[in-house]
Amino acid sequence: MSTLLYLHGFNSSPKSIKAQQMQEYLQQKRPDIHMICPQLAATPAAAWAQIQAICDDIQGNFGVAGSSLGGFLATLVAEQYGVRAVVINPAVNPHILLQDYLGEQLNPYTDERYSLGEHHMQELSELRLDAPTCMDRIWLLQQQGDEVLDYREALDYYRFARVCIQKGGDHSFVGFDHYCAQIIRFLQL
């Protein structure tokens, strides 16, 4: 059985719309694929350790998809584990982006309260790949109307990957459900 690892974004959860749409698609069209969508730890190093433990335990073929901060982490999975990845409106420089979120946080999906500090930005900076070698295994899905991230950063960073850019949209990636089948095909699951 093949496995899809889906990584949600910052202050999100497996209950996010895209994760639910992918789960529904797999249940209806591809029940042969097992989807793992963990509730990621709120802090970067803990989330990455959690992801590594999951990847180490997966038996057989797997691919990874991630949105926003999950796209950043999916790139790390592709690099370290040699698998294919789909990154959706990914955070390219989360150590800079999340500077605006330092301090007390509340995850609206889980009601978890935690504090985000400068040391977490350092963790993100240390996780960032300056020159990934896995771009031939990555597909970037990007919408120009993303109100959270500058889409041009992703276009530059993932310029050697397969790229799908759309006008309009927003950070949630409007119309994601229309891509589920293509994502599974790209991941070769």
TrEMBL record:
Superkingdom field: Bacteria
Pfam families per the UniProt record, alphabetical: UPF0227 (PF05728)
SUPFAM superfamilies: alpha/beta-Hydrolases
Gene3D superfamilies reported in the protein's UniProt record: alpha/beta hydrolase
Name the UniProt record assigns to this protein: Esterase
